[in-house]
Predict the 3D structure of the following.
Amino acid sequence: MFIPGMRRTAVGLTALAVAAFGAVATSPEQADARPKPVDVTLLALNDFHGNLEPPSGSSGTIAGQTAGGVEFLATHLAELRAAAKKKNTITVAAGDLIGASPLLSAAFHDEPTIEALSMAGLDYASVGNHEFDEGAAELLRIQNGGCHPVDGCIDGTPYRGAGFQYLSANAFKTATGKPLMAPYAIHKVQGVKVGFIGMTLEGTPQIVSQQGIAGLSFADEADTANRYARELRRKGVQAIVVLLHEGGTQAATGGINDCVGMTGPIVDITNRMDPSIDVVVSGHTHQAYNCDINGKLVTSASSFGRLVTDIDLKIDRRSGDVISAAANNVVVTRDVAKDPRQTALINRYKTVLGPVAGRQVGVTSEAITRSQETLFGTSLGESPLGNLIADAQLAATDDEQNAVAAFMNPGGVRADLDAGPVTYEEAFTVQPFANNLVTLDLTGAQLYCVLEQQFVTARTLYPSATVGYVVDPFGTTGTVAEPCAGTRVVRGSLTLGGTAVDTAATYRVTVNNFLAGGGDGFSALTGGTNLVTGQIDLDAFVDYLTAQSPVSAPTLDRIRTTAEVPAA
């Protein structure tokens, strides 16, 4: 058990040690006779998302430095292991290693990423929500190996599976109640045992397509961690680390090793965890932080392989308890030598991918970003790239399905577009999920309800150019149970093609299949009728870029406030 305060000062450690372990040695001879603690180093990452090559733009910088790329990540990991005692180093991850990946990884069902991270020495990883993007059966194939059931061995070589162990303690097979994968692992270091419990967020079903989590149920994170911590203790494990794909956010003033004004689910989850749990390696929010929450070390290494969290543990040889824990988020700079094995892996897959990735599909006259404008002091407004994608989806279905509006979810927009030529690979990086477009009937009343759900879920749907409405900052917000009760969207302000929406009339609306299934909490969309499935969203985006080039950033005037449009 890691006792709160032990990583603060030597004085605090001595006082707490007396309370925790009984009387301490009082003479130099007695002190020297005590066995020295075991030093264990954990190297942690999270939310890699298949970024084998260095990410571009703002996604490729952190703490004022360019960062990321698996060739550099592998070198940094090797250097950190060399600086510690190599045999005492364990490399771990907190989920979303795959999914929402650039084309180089996604085109091969993320096998290249698993190979690269295995080669880089990863030992254990929790399962993130994106590990379920292609379903539980595909996740088991990723772990165990074998060619893809539909596409086969795309690169012409057998896929051998992960060289590390995925852990999934709170994803259960609904029919049997058994965990989908091993819930925990025990790693021995110089005679002491370190237990690792792996989990994803309980809310995975709300942010993954229903096909991806079919047949699975997800349990509370803290309850699950406490359950398996008890089981580990019964097996003689006192040093316990949770690898959790859920996180939080610190204030904007905080640096990569700070914990300023920490908020988010990780705070409540950690506060409810048993005192026997020492460290929580977290993720999901793509943030960097280094916290002490309720006496536990809680860390996150941002995303895309730009940071590695270097965690130092001292473990008592006799009791097996963690005596102290400290962490440092280290930037994966690009000023080190590239790992030649990783370079060879990247080049091999790029050769197989061939000219498809570099094919030009359009031109942008300016950079078009996914950043959201501020609405009422929060980032809940429109996005230039999000609006552009909604326009593309409407263009793909207005003639075919008589759609009059389209909406895009913010989580589906994964990267910016730079100014100039746009390649297929760049377009894919923006929209990597291969969701189908779905056009459905909604009444005007249902449309208002969908828009009210934005304020319940704290997620803005990016609207096509045909959509316009006004938001009242003083309106009431609905609830999860009754989202339609909200009054944030001014009634009578919603227009489609400039005409006010009639709550009793029916309208054809296009979304992706993730949203159509109620994803991101938009349950009102599941009430749509006359569903017709169309083309892949990426294909619609590529077609639009080709047809409309040169493309510029849409004006952000589709969602306005009562301050801009005073009540009549």
Notes: The radius of gyration is 25 Å. The longest strand covers residues 322-331.
